[in-house]
Amino acid sequence: MQIYWTKINHIIDETEEIKTFLLDCPEDFKWEEGAHTHFALKGFNDGERPNRSLVRHMSISTLPNEKSIGITTRIREQCSEFKSILRTIKIGDQVALFKTNSNVPLKRENKSIYLLSSGVGLATFRPLVLEYFNQPDNIKHVHSLNIDSNRQFLFTDIFKTSSDKKFTSDFVDNRQDYYKAAEQLASDKDGLFYVVGSDEFLIQNIDLLRTHGIKSDQIVIDKHERRIPEFLSF
C-alpha cells in the first residue's frame, strides 16, 4: 500500500461548520471525478498497527485540473478525536492519503442523471458536475437535489440552475419537500440516480426509487463493490 504524505495549502470556511482542506498534489497521485480516499492525520501509523481513530474515508471534492486535492467535511462543536484535531490543523501541516478509488464516476449512456445527496454529501458530486460542465457528451441532463436541515448549503456558485448547461439544482431544508421532489424525479424511468449520504439516507432513497419503478442497475451509490449488495440486493 502506497501512502502519500502531503501538505495542506489552503483552508476554506464553506459555512459555520463545514471546511474544505486543499492539499498539495503529490507528483504521481491520480484520481477521477467521484473519487474517495483514506485521509489520515499525523501519527496514524506510528505504532505497530494503524491508529484507526486518526483515519477517515473521505470524498475528494475537486478535479485534478484544479491542482489541489480537496477534502470537504463538517466539524461540529461536539465531535470525534479526528475532527477535533482537524479543527486545529494549520496550513503547512502534513496529512496522508492512501487507497484512493472511485465508486461513482459519470456514466455517459445518453440518459439524464439525478444526484441525490444529504448535507456535506454534496461534496462528492461537486467534481461530477464540474466534469459534466467540461465535457457534457452523452448525458442528456443533470439534476441535483440536496437536503440540509441546517440550511448550510454548499457550492451554490456551482450548483445553480443553468438552461444553457442543461443543469438544474434544488436545495431543500426538510424531508417532506425532499421526498416530494425525489418522487417527481423518479418519474423518469430511464434515468440514472446517484445517491450519497448516510446509510439510512441511502436505504430510504433506494426504497423510494424502487417503489416508483427504478431498477437497481439505475442506482449508483458511493460504496465499495463488496458492500453494494447490502443496499441494492432484493
- Portion of residues in beta strands equals 25-35%
The CATH architecture of the largest domain can be named as 3-Layer(aba) Sandwich
Order of strands across the main sheet:
4-3-6-1-2-5
What low-confidence regions span 5 or more consecutive residues with pLDDT below 50? Answer: none
Query: How many domain units?
Result: 2
- Helix/strand-derived category reads alpha/beta
Mean pLDDT score = 94
State the CATH superfamily name of the largest domain. Nucleotide-binding domain of ferredoxin-NADP reductase (FNR) module
Protein name: Dihydropteridine reductase
What does this molecule look like?
With about 230 residues, the chain is an alpha/beta fold. It has 2 domains: about 5-100, Translation factors (Elongation Factor Tu (Ef-tu), domain 3, Beta Barrel), CATH 2.40.30.10; about 110-230, 3-Layer(aba) Sandwich (Rossmann fold), CATH 3.40.50.80. About 20% of the residues lie in helices and about 30% in strands. It has 5 helices and 11 strands; from the N terminus they run E-E-E-E-E-H-E-E-H-E-E-H-E-H-E-H. The strands form 2 sheets. Strands 4-3-6-1-2-5 form a 6-stranded antiparallel β-sheet. A 5-stranded parallel β-sheet has the order 9-8-7-10-11, sandwiched between helices. Helix 4 links the parallel strand 10 (about 190-195) and strand 11. It is globular and about 50 Å long. The two termini are about 35 Å apart.
